[in-house]
Amino acid sequence: MKILTLKWDCFGYFHIRKAFKLAGFDLCELDFPIKKESTKNSENLANLVVKAILDNKADAVFSFNYFPVAAIAAAACRVKYISWTYDSPYILLYSKTIEFPTNYAFVFDKNEYINLRRKGAETVYYLPMAADTEYFDSVVISDTERNKYSADIALIGSMYTEAKHNLIRHFNGLDDYTSGYLDGIISIQKQIYGASILEKSLTPEIVKNIQKVCPMYESGDGIEDASWVLANYFVARKITGMERQELVAALSQKYNVTLYTPEKTPTLPLVDNRGSVEYYKDSPKAIKCAKINLNITLRSIVNAIPLRAFDIMGCGGFLLTNYQADFEDYFIPGTDFVYFESKSDLIEKAGYYLEHDDERLAIAYSGYKKIQEYHSFNIRVAEMINIAELR
Whole-model pTM? Predict the structure, then answer.
């Protein structure tokens, strides 16, 4: 059986191709120009996928993240379209094309899986992320690089302060009541991990008030609600930016904190901002050379284990993360990883594990072994094969 894989600048692409090959599939590839064409409704891009399917005589299509144009092309050619979405929020999952019977759309967040299923998307399946420990083990770190990436506490990722993330800036001009209401739910949500109150808190009245200054409405060709978009793209990102700023600032008051991000951070003068780090080549080195790897999950990811957390444990790094409910389905807190419940809890646990090397290293190794045994890309591909009946 031959699978057409859509190649774009995504995380894990080479790992998944290796897993499909080991499972015995023939692979062909299409450079997928997501930055040049609309992946939602470009007829040209859909035709490009159709041509690749026909020219290569592909039996199925695979992509990281779900693309409506790929779903349209696969349905037109009567082949299966397997996607695995690791981004959240990800509005393209709410395209009505998700209902095509040729789709097998895997999502990493159980909460999003349940939400889509409730909306009638029977082609959606829950599948946690994975890590390629074999690849991470092959990464060689020179003495120079070890000095370069050495860190007590490291955080890799966006601080969500860039304009492209700060969509709530479009709420300028809100009336005092709505503005105060949003401040209130933001304050409450910041104190809650493992559950989201945002979408349900955005009542029809509040949504209408926001739309007066930010005219964001349902697209008409999707199954998303305006409240879902506002909660996940606007409010959740604002909370994430505030939270990362506050937690990193608090940690830097007591400990040496290293940040790998493309953003400038003038409001974090005590943090060592080393700029962005390349995913495949350099990120594993940064993870392996940090005593503590910090994860602060994007707030639109309600229950799921982010890919970054799998990467950290897969590299053998010590993971200190906010609480996410899905962790407890697969890992043991305090044995495979450590989670914090508040700012003070984070500061206390960071200090404790910086001082207790043996415990920290034992937890990191336990998490690594759990990833190696149960959460490889090979295992995930086997699950996809079984559900999509690719044999």
Answer: 0.94
